[in-house]
Design brief:
The chain is built from 4 helices and 2 strands, in the order αααββα. A hairpin with a 2-residue loop joins strand 1 and strand 2. The relative contact order is 0.06. It has one domain. It is mainly alpha-helical and 70 residues long. A two-stranded antiparallel sheet has the order 1-2. It is 44% helix and 6% strand. The N and C termini lie far apart (63 Å).
Length: 70
């Protein structure tokens, strides 16, 4: 039962090592890790939008405060 799996691994060949290099840092690439993580912290790339129109169209949707004219 392992023959198809072993055959597929043999077909991949040298590309297997390239694919395995991404495994420890998935879903990020090594370039992102080198650029985003410095020492014991990780930079955050986040934008918070707490404006009333955004809250009404997102978090408050389906409540009485998310209705038009509220």
């Amino acid at each position: 039962n392992l023959e198809p799996t072993v055959r597929a691994l043999a077909d991949v060949g040298p590309d297997l090592m390239t694919a395995l290099a991404y495994l420890p840092t998935y879903p990020y690439t090594q370039e992102f890790i080198d650029r985003g993580i410095r020492g014991d912290y990780m930079n955050q790339f986040i934008v918070f939008d707490f404006t009333i129109p955004r809250l009404k169209s997102g978090m408050l949707l389906g409540t009485r405060w998310g209705e038009p004219g509220a």
